[in-house]
Amino acid sequence: MNKTAKINQEIISILEDKIQLIKRDSGAIYLVGPIRLPVNLDGETVTFKWYCWLNCDEVTEDYERIIEKLSSENLAEYQQSSVLVYGDFEYGEEALIRMHSICHTGDIFGSKRCDCGFQLKQSMKMIVEHGTGALFYLANHEGRGIGLFSKAMAYVLQENGLDTVEANESLGFVDDSRNYSDAIEVLKALRTKPVTLITNNPKKMDALQSSGMHVSGRTPLWGDISEFNEKYLQTKVKRSGHIEDKGTSSND
């Protein structure tokens, strides 16, 4: 994308009001939002507050410099994560959060090989019903961190008898290479009060607690088990350490 002119100062003043700098040990996270986002949830329109964030090596509060720099980048080639916030997330006493890893096949196409698409919509509904919460959509987590192309190769191996852990490991990956540090930094910038995590994955709980975030509890997310994903779900329980709560039928 070629820049044609210096960005108008009026545009800068509008944008810098919505950009927050989160300093890290190395570089920074730039968080833009909140942005009003009406969402179709089971036929009803629910309005969330949407934020998106970007990692950057440069640490500056000169947002004009950052905006001009990004206008010459092709950000569509990079991965950016975001978060949907509902209710009084900053000050509410009780808040549900979901750290949801992107699943191209499940979230977009509705694949039944996993239960990710169900979990995405169900966690949004749980947050709305609860009244306060946030869903973090983590864009660099495809295939538990191996990327979409590698995930496709892993699917080929699964169709030839390997389970999901064996497939990842046979391609040279670990079972789960996801990192939650960026999302946790954004969470801390948005809320300091305790949160309840929607998950059956103890690694997510460990990541939050290790960061110093006060986690008041865990809420399981179950459902959508089928002949297509039953082996996948049981592999997550038996080999990846996910918690299979009694009387439930799915996990992440």
Task: Tell me what the structure shows.
With 252 residues, the protein is of the alpha/beta class. It has a single domain, classed as GTP cyclohydrolase II (Rossmann fold, 3-Layer(aba) Sandwich). Helices cover 35% and strands 23% of the residues. The chain has ten helices and eight strands. It has an eight-stranded mixed sheet with strand order 1-2-3-4-6-5-7-8, sandwiched between helices. Strand 2 and strand 3 form a beta hairpin. Helix 6 packs across helix 7. The C terminus is likely disordered.
Name the features:
single chain; 252 residues; alpha/beta; Rossmann fold; eight-stranded mixed sheet; 10 helices; 35% helix; globular
Outline:
By secondary structure, this protein is an alpha/beta fold.
Broad structural category: alpha/beta
Q: Let me know the number of strands.
A: 8
Rg, Cα atoms, Å:
19 Å
What fraction strand? 15-25%
Number of distinct helices: 10
Low-confidence stretches: 246-252
By CATH, the superfamily comes out as: GTP cyclohydrolase II
Task: Describe the secondary structure blueprint for this structure.
Elements: H1 9-16, E1 19-23, E2 28-41, E3 44-56, H2 63-70, E4 81-86, E5 96-101, H3 104-108, H4 116-130, E6 133-138, H5 142-145, H6 148-158, H7 164-170, H8 181-190, E7 195-198, H9 202-210, E8 215-219, H10 230-240
Parallel strand pairs: 5-6, 5-7, 7-8
Antiparallel strand pairs: 1-2, 2-3, 3-4, 4-6
